[in-house]
Amino acid sequence: MERTVVQITLTGLLLALASTLPNKNDWDIYSFHINSTVTSRYATTVITSRVVNRMNESKEIEFHVRIPKNAFISKFRMFIDGQVYEGVVKAKEQAQQQYSEAVSRGESAGLVSSVGRTLEEFKTSVTVAAHKKVTFELTYEELMKRTHGKYELQIHARPMQPVRDFKVDVYIHEEAGISFIDVKGGLSTKALANAITKTHADKQAWVYFYPTADQQKMCDSCGDQGMNGDLVIVYDVSRDNGLGEIKKSAGYFVHHFAPSNLPRIPKNVVFLIDQSGSMHGKKIQQTRTALIHILNDLAEDDHFGLITFDGNIFHWKQELVQANSKNLENAKNFARNIQDRGSTDINQAVLQGANMLNVHHREGSASILILLTDGDPTSGETNLEKIQSNVRQAIAGKFPLYCLGFGFDVNFEFLEKMSLQNNGVARRIYEDSDADLQLKGFYEEVATPLLTDVTMVYVGGTNLTQTNFSQYYNGSEIVVAGQITDNDIETFIPQAVAISNNRRVTFSNTNDAVKSTGRMSHDHVQRVWAYLTVKQLLDKELKLSGPEKETAKNEALELSLKYSFVTPLTSMVVTKPLGESIDVLHKPKEGETPQRGQPPVDQPKSQKTTPLAKFLHFTQLMELGSVHRHFVNDTFFCSFASIHWIVAEVFLLKAENQTIPLCFDVSGAVLLKLLHHSSRELFVNGELDSVANGGFSRIVIHFKTDQHVEIGTMGVTVRDGQTVTHHTGVTVIIRNKEIDIAAGDMRLVILVHEKNGEKFLWPVLRQHPSTNNTEGLLDVSFIFFFLCVCVCSDSTVDYTVASPPTMNCWLMSAESALQRPLDDFYVAQL
Ligand SMILES: *[C@@H]1O[C@H](CO)[C@@H](O)[C@H](O)[C@H]1NC(C)=O
Ligand SMILES: *[C@@H]1O[C@H](CO)[C@@H](O)[C@H](O)[C@H]1NC(C)=O
Ligand SMILES: *[C@@H]1O[C@H](CO)[C@@H](O)[C@H](O)[C@H]1NC(C)=O
Ligand SMILES: *[C@@H]1O[C@H](CO)[C@@H](O)[C@H](O)[C@H]1NC(C)=O
Ligand SMILES: *[C@@H]1O[C@H](CO)[C@@H](O)[C@H](O)[C@H]1NC(C)=O
Ligand SMILES: *[C@@H]1O[C@H](CO)[C@@H](O)[C@H](O)[C@H]1NC(C)=O
Ligand SMILES: *[C@@H]1O[C@H](CO)[C@@H](O)[C@H](O)[C@H]1NC(C)=O
Ligand SMILES: *[C@@H]1O[C@H](CO)[C@@H](O)[C@H](O)[C@H]1NC(C)=O
To answer: What is its main location (predicted)?
Structure first.
C-alpha cells in the first residue's frame, strides 16, 4: 500500500477558515461593555458583549477577547433565549476527559488559548438562531504588580466592529488614597482622547471611555473593523512610609509594604552577556545599546562586573570595580565592541559571575547577578539539571539571579526555574525594535535596592504567602496575604524586619495601620490571598522537584478549583446549547508553543494488519486557530492549539485545494454491528470479508424477532426487481448490484462491488433515522477529538458509491475515529 505524507498547510486551513468567517453584516454587536473594579490593587474585570444574529438563518457567533496574562479567568457565561450557560472550572485532566466524552456522545469540542506579549486570547463561539440574541460575559481577576512606582491596568478592546453602545468603566478604590491617575495606551490618543472622562477624588477614581461608533474608526490601529488597542490606567497610592497598608476582612488579611523614603543601598552587579552566534545582528546591537544606557545609570558607589560568554568566558575585568567615570568609560568601550560568535556556555558564565560576587562581599551592599541569553546551553555543561544544581550551590541564597531570555529560542522554563531557585525572576525580552528599552526597563526595576533580607512577621497569622524577600527595590512593592488565626485582630501583630544600609530596621504598627475593610466586598481580601497563594504555589511547583513539587501542585489545584480560577492546572468547561460543542479553555504557559506538554496520545500502529475494510468518515472542519505539525518518519502528528468543531454530517479535513476524508481500518473476520434501531426492531449486522479486497461477505437484517434476510455475495436473495414487503413497515427492494432497505424515515443501501473477480458488499446509510435510539458503525457521530491524534496519509477506495473512486484519506486508528473501543461494535452472531 502506498503511503505518502501529505502536508496540511496552515495557509490552506486558514483559507478554508477565512471563507467561513462571519460576514460583518451577519451579526451585530449592539453592546460591548468592559467594567473593571479595582480595590486594593485587585482588579476584577467583566467583559459583556451582546450580539444579535441579523440573518434569517442560524449563525455561529464568536466571542473573541484578550485579557492580561497575569489574570485568572474566574467566570464565563452565555445567555441565550432565557437560558444561562455557565463555564465550570475543573482539573485539567478531568476537563479533558469530559471533552473526550462529549466528543464520543456526538457533541463537538474546542479549546482556546494563545499568547502575545502581555495578553492572552479567549475565544469561543455559539450558534444562534435567526434573529436571536446572545450575551457573552467573561470575568477575570488579577493582582496588579507595582513596578517603576506605579500600577498599570491594561484593558484591551477589540470588539471586531464599531459598536454603538461601547463603554469601558473603570472604578478604583484605594483606602490609602490615590496619589495620581493617568490614562495611556493607543486608545487614549487622537480622536479617542475626547471620549475619556477621568475623575479623581482622594480614595476613589473613575475612568469612563465612551467612544462613538465614528470615533471607534479613528485611532491609530482602528479602522472599519472598529477599535483594536489598549487603554492603560496608570496610578499609584499614597504611602505612609511605615509598615504600609494592611487590610483585613473575614479572617483574611493582605499587607502592602512599599516604603520609599529610605536611602539607596550601593549595589554590586554583574552582567553576564551571551555573545553566542545566535545573538547576531539586531539582538547584539540592542544589547550593546541597553548595556551602555545601564552603565550610564550606575551610581558612583556601585560596583560592577561584565562578563561576555559564548563557548568561552571573557571577563572585562577579573574583579568588580567601582562605577567611577573612568571605569564606566572603559566598560562602555568594551560594550561597544561585543561581537557575536561561538556557542553558549551558560554554566561557566553563571558560575564565574557568582564567584565574582562571592569574592567581592561588601558589608551593607546588595549583590545582583543578571544573565542575558538567547539560547540553550550548547557548550560546557549542557545538562540543565546539573547547571541548576551548580548554580544553586555557587549562589547559596546570597543574592538573586535574574535571567533575561532574549527571543523565543530560549528554554524559558529552564531560565525561570533557575531564577526562582535563586530568589530572582526570569523575564522574556521580545525580539522587537524596543528590545533595548525592555532590557533597560528591567534593569531599572532592580536599580535601586532599599532593603535586603526582608522578613515579614505576622504574629497571630497563618497560611501566609511568601514572607522572606532577599531584596526590596524602590518602585516595587512587597505583598503578603494570609489568614488571621481565629480571626482575632487583637493578637494579630504585623511587622517587617530588614537590613537598610548596614542597619537592622524594624517596621511596626505604630498607628492604626490595620484597617478593616469598609466598602470592600466580603470575600475580596480572601480572593487576593487565594490569587497570590496560587501564583506562588505555581512558581514553587516549577522550581521544586519530587514530592514537594507534587504537594505544591496539589495545593495549587485545590485552591484553583475552590476559587474557580483558570490556571495552568485547571480548565474551564463551557457547555453549550444542546447539540453544540463543549469548549475547554486552558491557560497557556508563558511562551508556550502549541505542541508543548501535549504528546500525542494515540498513534497508528506502524505494523498494521492487512486492512480489510476501510471506513471513511466525513465531517467538516470549520475553524481552527494555530496548528502545529511535525513529522516523525511517515507519521503525521498534529496538535491544535485552538480548534473548534462543528457537528455536521460530513467531516472533511481541508488540505490545500484538496478535501481529504479521514479513514480507519478494521481487520480480521469479525462480525460488526452496523445499525441497530431498537424501536423499529431492526438490526443489521455484517461479517467482514477476511480474504477479499475489503467490505463484507455477508450482511444480515433482522426484523422483529423472527424475520431475517441474509445478503451474501453469491446470495440467493439478490434478485433483480424483486420487492419484499414486510408487515413491519420495512421495505426491501433488490436491484442489480444494490439492495435498498427502507424502514420509516431510514434508508439503508447495500452495494455489491466486484474487484478482481470477487464480489463483496458495502452498506451505506442513505437516510439517517430522525430518532436518536440507533447505534452501530453506520451511526457513529462523525466527530473527532483531534488534539493529539496522529494521522498519516493513506489511500482508500470510496465504496459508498456505485463506481468507487480511489482517494487519499487521513488514516487514524478506529478508536480515535470512533472515540470508543472497536469492541463496542462487535456482535457475537450475525
Ligand atoms: C461594574 O461592576 C460593579 C461591580 O460588579 C458594579 O457595582 C457596577 O454597577 C458596574 N458598573 C457598570 C457601569 O456596569
Ligand atoms: C431569507 O433570506 C434569503 C436571502 O437573504 C431570502 O432569499 C429568503 O427569502 C429569506 N427567507 C425568509 C423567510 O425571510
Ligand atoms: C524612591 O522613589 C521615590 C518616588 O518614586 C523617590 O522620591 C525617591 O527619591 C526614591 N529613592 C531613592 C533612594 O532613589
Ligand atoms: C490554614 O492553616 C491551617 C493550619 O494552620 C490548616 O489547617 C488549614 O487547612 C489552612 N487552610 C488553608 C485554606 O490552607
Ligand atoms: C525567613 O527568614 C527568617 C530570618 O532570616 C528565617 O528564620 C526563616 O526561616 C525564613 N523563612 C523561610 C520560609 O525561609
Ligand atoms: C524513524 O526512523 C528511524 C530510522 O529511520 C528509526 O530509528 C526510528 O525508530 C523511527 N521512529 C519512529 C517513531 O518510528
Ligand atoms: C490550487 O488550485 C489552483 C487553481 O485550481 C491552482 O492554480 C494551484 O496550483 C493549486 N494549488 C495546489 C497547491 O495544488
Ligand atoms: C433522544 O430522544 C429522546 C426523545 O426524543 C430524548 O428524550 C432524549 O434526551 C434523546 N437522547 C439524546 C442522547 O439526545
So the answer is: secreted
For ligand 6, atom 7, which residue shows the shortest CA distance? 633
Which range, of 180-189, 326-335, 532-541, 677-686, averages the lowest pLDDT? 677-686
The grid coordinates of residue 230 equal 489598549
If you measure from the C-alpha of residue 539 to the centroid of ligand 4, how many angstroms do you get, rounded to a whole number? 20
The binding-site residues of ligand 1, defined as CB within 6 angstroms of any ligand atom, are 35, 37, 169
Q: Is the pLDDT of residue 592 over 60?
A: no
- Show the cell assigned to 658: 484538496
Q: What is the DSSP letter of 241?
A: S
Q: Whose CA is nearest to atom 7 of ligand 4?
A: 463
pLDDT one-digit tens code per residue, 574-586: 777 765 666 666 6
Chain-centroid distance of CA 616 in Å reads: 33
Residue 271 in 3-state DSSP? strand
The closest of 774, 296, 252, 249 to 517, measured between CA atoms, is: 249
Q: If you average pLDDT over residues 656-684, what whole number do you get?
A: 70
User: What pLDDT is recorded for position 87?
Assistant: 86
Q: What is the mean pLDDT of residues 405-428?
A: 89
Between the CA of 56 and the centroid of ligand 2 the distance, in Å, is: 6
Q: Which residues pair with 730 in a beta bridge?
A: 743
CATH topology of domain 27-238+566-586: Immunoglobulin-like (2.60.40)
pTM (global) more than 0.90 = no
CA-nearest residue, atom 1 of ligand 7: 657
462 lines ligand 4 (CB under 6 A): yes
CA of 99 from ligand 8 middle (Å) equals 20
799 with 759: CB under 8 angstroms? no
Which ligand lies nearest to the CA atom of residue 15 in the structure? 7
The pLDDT-based confidence of 329 (bands split at 50, 70, 90) is very high
3-state secondary structure of 753: strand
CA of 661 to the centre of ligand 6 (A): 27
pLDDT at 160: 84
CA 710 distance to own-chain centroid: 54
Look at 721 and 472; give whichever has higher pLDDT.
Answer: 472
* DSSP character at residue 329: H
Residue 520 CA, ligand 1 centroid: distance in Å: 13
Check pLDDT > 50 for residue 120.
Answer: yes
Atom of ligand 1 nearest to the CA of 33: 14
Q: Which of 34, 35, 39, 209 to mutate to test the pocket of ligand 1 (most atoms within 8 A of CB)?
A: 35
- Verify whether ligand 7 is closer than 6 Å to residue 656 (CB atom): yes
What is the architecture of the domain spanning 267-447? 3-Layer(aba) Sandwich (3.40)
Mean predicted confidence (pLDDT) in 304-308: 94
Closest CA to 359 of 326, 327, 393, 394: 394
Residue nearest to atom 12 of ligand 1 (CA): 35
| Closest ligand to residue 170's CA | 1
Q: Where are the domains of the chain?
A: 27-238+566-586, 267-447, 604-825
As a three-state string, the secondary structure of 773-820 is CEECHHHCCCCCCCCCEEEEEEEEECCCCCCCCEEEEEECCHHHHHCC
Q: Which ligand is nearest to the CA of 25?
A: 2
Residue 4 has pLDDT above 50, yes or no: no
Ligand nearest to the CA of 771: 8
Residue to mutate (ligand 5; options 398, 454, 467, 543; most atoms within 8 A of CB): 467
Q: Of 515, 376, 540, nearest to 465 (Cα)?
A: 540
Looking at all shown ligands, the one closest to residue 457's CA atom is 5
> Which has the minimum average pLDDT: 54-58, 398-402, 450-454, 740-744?
740-744
Among candidates 217, 66, 77, 84, which has minimal Cα distance to 155? 66
- Check if the beta carbon of residue 698 is closer than 8 Å to that of residue 705: no
The size of the chain, in residues, is 830
Q: Is 463 in the pocket of ligand 4 (CB under 6 A)?
A: yes
